[in-house]
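Progress report, Aim 2. The chain analyzed during this reporting quarter is listed below.
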Amino acid sequence: MPEARIHSFAPVVGQAPQLLVLGSMPSVASLRAGQYYGNPRNHFWHLMADVLGEPSVPQAYGERLAMLMRHGVALWDALESCVRPGSLDGDITAAQPNDIAGLVRAHPTIRAVACNGRAAQSALVRYQHLPEPQPRRILLPSSSPVPTRAMRAYADRLAAWLVLRDVLDG
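Predicted C-alpha cells for the chain:
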C-alpha cells in the first residue's frame, strides 16, 4: 500500500513581516497536533523566544503565533505536500512546493528568508525563484532536538539562530 500524502499548514503572516522562517514539512507529532513545531522536544519555540527577547515561551499555541507576528516573523514550510513515512526529511519523496515566491511578492516587507535546516534550504533553492530584490537567505541549523557533530546542545543552536536579530533589528 503506498504511503499517504501529507500536507503542510497555512502560512502564519502578520501585518508587515520582516523575516520568513521556513521549515521543510511538519513532523508526525506536529501534524497530529495540528501545530507548527508541535513536538514538545523540538527547540523551535524556545529558540524564537530567546531570539526575540521574550521572557518565556507562551503556553498556548495561538499566543506562540502571536509572539512571532508581533515581532515581524512569518512562518511557513517550503513544501506544500509530500510522501514521507515518519518524520525524517531524508525520507521525503514526491514533494510539491509551497509558493514561497508568491508569499514574498505579497509581503514586500520580508527582508530575509531563514531556512530551518538543510532540507528547507534545498527545497527553497530547488523550487523557488524569489522576486528581486531577493531577500537575504539564511541557513540555520535545524531546531530538531537530535544532536549533530556541530550542534550538540541547545546553546550551540541558539548561538547560530541569534543572527536573526540582525534582520529584525535592522
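Helices lie at 28-33, 44-52, 61-70, 100-106, 118-127, 154-161, 164-169. The mean pLDDT is 91. These observations will guide the mutagenesis work planned for the next reporting period.
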